[in-house]
TrEMBL record:
UniProt-listed Enzyme Commission number(s): 2.1.3.2
Domain Aspartate/ornithine carbamoyltransferase carbamoyl-P binding: 6-149
Quaternary structure and partners: Heterododecamer (2C3:3R2) of six catalytic PyrB chains organized as two trimers (C3), and six regulatory PyrI chains organized as three dimers (R2).
Job description of the protein: Catalyzes the condensation of carbamoyl phosphate and aspartate to form carbamoyl aspartate and inorganic phosphate, the committed step in the de novo pyrimidine nucleotide biosynthesis pathway.
UniProt-recorded name of the protein: Aspartate carbamoyltransferase
Organism for this UniProt entry: Campylobacter geochelonis
Catalytic activity entry: carbamoyl phosphate + L-aspartate = N-carbamoyl-L-aspartate + phosphate + H(+)
Residues reported in the UniProt entry to bind carbamoyl phosphate: 58-59, 108, 136, 139, 265-266
Domain Aspartate/ornithine carbamoyltransferase Asp/Orn-binding: 155-302
Stated family: Belongs to the aspartate/ornithine carbamoyltransferase superfamily. ATCase family.
Amino acid sequence: MSYKHKDLLGTRELSRDEILFFLDSAKEFKNLNNQSIKKSDNLRGKTVINAFFENSTRTRISFETAAKRLGADAINFSAAQSSTKKGETLIDTIRNMEAMKTDIFVVRHECSGSAEFIAKNTDASIVNGGDGLNEHPTQALLDLFTIRENKGKFEGLNVAIIGDIEHSRVARSNIWAMHKLGINVRLFAPPMMMPHRVEVFECEVAKTMEEALDGVDVIMMLRIQLERQGGAVAFPSGREYSKFFGLNKNRVKLANPNPLIFHPGPINRGVEINSDVADGEHSFVLNQVENGVAVRMAVLDILNKNRG
Ligand code: CP
């Protein structure tokens, strides 16, 4: 098993073996992260720039942590304080930072396809940290890592993805990857947040919250992504959304015993998920975050090795 590419742009193009290769490598880095000295020198002397043109807490900080634990020089670019505000293009911005001998860029941008566009126009390695509605591959990998760690397998598991699927790159990356691992994926969303051509995802589509949750092993709740809805009001109020599409303690009982409850964050408490569930015994939200560092260490390490 190996991964032989310059970039990691999405899970859609990954084979089953490539996904497992990332997860197996991440397991080794999780062991390292559990030591008191969480440090390797695999990326010593290398430069990693987090080029985030959109806001982030988890992805940016965990990539920075991952790069530093691997011994790299980790630099954070913030679009708000950059010359993009003076009209500099995306590719000029990246090429100027590449001229400073940057080895790997982690890129987050609001435009779908931006990571691929940059990858084709630079010799540096590109990790997609989230491009528009398209993909967020390291989120899917950390979700899969957390599933395998707690369920011990993928084949035959049932996962419900619930919420704003239309605007979710997390949902897309998970759907592509989960299919390859033999996981059954069920989708449920308000009509305005369900993709128009949902059949392309080849998932079950539930009609009610009860149907969505029946017999699932993993419940993945999604945030309503108002920033991608162009000002349209997709539901009357948070309270109404919670009533029909929110996860509460009673609804969790519809799932299989000991379900894993996931949320990529940030959470809208009391809207898509109640606090007693987000903080409850079945919540793996912070496990996802913890595993994100190990997964991102694996991704940076593998891409760095591919650079020779
Ligand atoms: N899950 C995730 O992408 O969170 P951030 O937007 O905080 O990075």
